[in-house]
């Protein structure tokens, strides 16, 4: 027994301890990456980097894994570190690719051009040129979208001005152009039917709004318009059908809140209208003449005459054109 133990000890002294090198960790990391076991791959590569912190290849491979899992910022941090310790041109391509994924096109273009500049015939030349081509297309699309948004904004502001000043015919001409140019814009049809209604084309406006509500029954603007139209047409049953659900609706957006408050005021529900006006953030809606018109009207009909006069005076101060109008309660 004693002899066996000594032989065993003798054998152990002949075994050289196995100390893994950085390449071993790197190889294990690549194997895990190929099997798409990304968490394990990251752990092995970090071990490899700990063993050889100046080995750019290990760090570049780690950045590629981060890119694969969508951790683009982490990938870029690794690549920036590599560039501090070595002039690894491939890092520029990898950075350009990551910035493109993040939507930071200027940065993507910068690093793609750096790659071409430093290695015109590099391994990733074709990929970089393709990336630059895609960036140019993206930038052109973005410019077109911005131009379209600017044009839409001009139309919206013009329509808003005419409708706030009850210039219905002028509003209709602009809205007809908008319906052709921006058919998907959600509120243009509702503004159009309202302008038609107050221009005296009530039945046409009503028919159009009823058709629109069939395709979008939850439309707040559609329901508000129909409640308003039926109220002015004296059809109480239909008015109640559309106004009752609005009494239970509390939108998040200030413009929608204002729309409901004004609809309540215009159709004689002054108690509810007062509650809605008080819930508004005034700084966000004070650009509307209708805010001051109908808030003042609401206060007056709730026997808050001094408040009504105060609201009206503030409206006239902010919008001098209101001075030419009679007070809403008259």
Q: What is the makeup of the main sheet?
A: none
Q: Can you say what the CATH homologous superfamily of the largest domain is?
A: Tetratricopeptide repeat domain
Compute the gyration radius: what is it?
A: 35 Å
Number of separate domains: 3
**How is the CATH topology of the largest domain named?**
Serine Threonine Protein Phosphatase 5, Tetratricopeptide repeat
Task: Quote the average pLDDT.
Answer: 86
| Share in helix | over 70%
From the 3D coordinates, which CATH architecture of the largest domain would you assign?
Answer: Alpha Horseshoe
C-alpha geometry: elongated
Distance between the termini: 118 Å
Assembly context of the chains: single chain
Strand residue content: under 5%
What structural class do you assign from the helix and strand content? mainly alpha
CATH class of the largest domain: Mainly Alpha
Contiguous low-pLDDT stretches (5 residues minimum) are 1-19
Number of strands: 0
Helix-strand pattern: HHHHHHHHHHHHHHHHHH
- The helix tally amounts to 18
InterPro entries: CellSynth/LPSAsmb/PSIAsmb, TPR-like_helical_dom_sf, TPR_rpt
TPR repeats: 22-55
Organism: Virgibacillus pantothenticus
Protein name: Tetratricopeptide repeat protein
């Amino acid at each position: 027994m004693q002899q066996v133990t000594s032989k065993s000890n003798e054998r152990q002294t002949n075994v050289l301890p196995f100390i893994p090198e950085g390449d071993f960790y790197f190889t294990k990391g690549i194997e895990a990456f190929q099997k798409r076991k990304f968490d394990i791959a990251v752990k092995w590569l970090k071990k490899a980097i700990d063993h050889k912190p100046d080995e750019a290849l290990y760090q570049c491979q780690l950045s590629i894994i981060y890119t694969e899992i969508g951790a683009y910022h982490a990938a870029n941090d690794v690549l920036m570190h590599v560039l501090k310790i070595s002039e690894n041109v491939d890092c520029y391509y990898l950075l350009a690719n990551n910035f493109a994924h993040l939507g930071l096109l200027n940065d993507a273009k910068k690093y793609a051009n750096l790659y071409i500049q430093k290695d015109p015939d590099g391994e990733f030349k074709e990929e970089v040129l393709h990336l630059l081509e895609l960036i140019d297309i993206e930038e052109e699309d973005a410019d077109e979208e911005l131009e379209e948004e600017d044009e839409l904004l001009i139309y919206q502001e013009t329509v808003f001005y005419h409708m706030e000043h009850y210039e219905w015919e002028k509003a209709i001409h602009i809205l007809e152009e908008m319906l052709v140019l921006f058919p998907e814009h959600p509120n243009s049809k509702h503004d159009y039917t309202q302008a038609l209604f107050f221009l005296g084309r009530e039945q046409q406006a009503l028919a159009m709004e009823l058709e629109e509500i069939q395709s979008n029954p939850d439309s707040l603007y559609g329901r508000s318009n129909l409640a308003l139209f039926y109220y002015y047409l004296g059809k109480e049953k239909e008015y109640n059908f559309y106004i009752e659900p609005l009494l239970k609706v509390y939108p998040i957006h200030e413009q929608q809140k204002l729309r409901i408050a004004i609809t309540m005021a215009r159709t004689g529900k002054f108690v509810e209208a007062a509650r809605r006006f008080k819930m508004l953030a005034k700084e966000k809606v004070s650009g509307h003449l209708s805010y001051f018109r109908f808030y003042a009207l609401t206060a007056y009909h709730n026997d808050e005459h001094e408040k009504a006069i105060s609201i009206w005076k503030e409206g006239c101060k902010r919008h001098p054109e209101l001075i030419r109008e009679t007070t809403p309660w008259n």
